[in-house]
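Fig. S4 source data, part A: sequence.
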Amino acid sequence: TTIYNGVNLPQRVQKAEAKLALCEEFGLKFELATLLFVGNGFKRKGLKEFLLLASKLKTPVNTLIVGKDKNISSYKRLAKKLGLNAYFVGEQKSTAKFYEASDVFIFPTHYEPFSNVVLEALSFKNIVFTTAQNGAAEILENRFIMREPNDESILELVEQVLNDNDMMRELQEKSFLLSQKFSIEENASKTLEIINEVLNLEQK
């Protein structure tokens, strides 16, 4: 039996309000869609690939990077060299406001058993792309799964979404609905169910 991770799901998601507040706090351009990356240890999590993918988009976007790494300065230099509107906000106690304010979450990790950031991003109505090397890819449709961290084939769909508000809203709602299956309560309930099954078998 596979029991997927669970996260605390937000009670409500107010994306426009959250984006306005974040734009004021960090100087993001409100008229641009926001691409988000969350993770510590940038090399394994694929920040270089995230920045390179973002730089290949024809549509201008804000790129928002939450997390820490001892080589953060080299990533900042790369973002500048690539000409990105990149905002490095460091490690944060709470990432909720960043998820809530963003539109698309790209996580080109090189390896991840099952990253909670995918569930968190979905729960805050982000359109999520991640690699086949991330166990969390199992819950996503194929079109959102990257073959490897530098898989540029997703850019076509990202461009479509960035230029079609109706499509963006529709996919964001689908993300939200998908996340509802992965609450921490659901995780605990399924875990207890398995424990009880095993105990009952042993008693027999």
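Fig. S4 source data, part B ends here. The chain has a mean pLDDT of 95.
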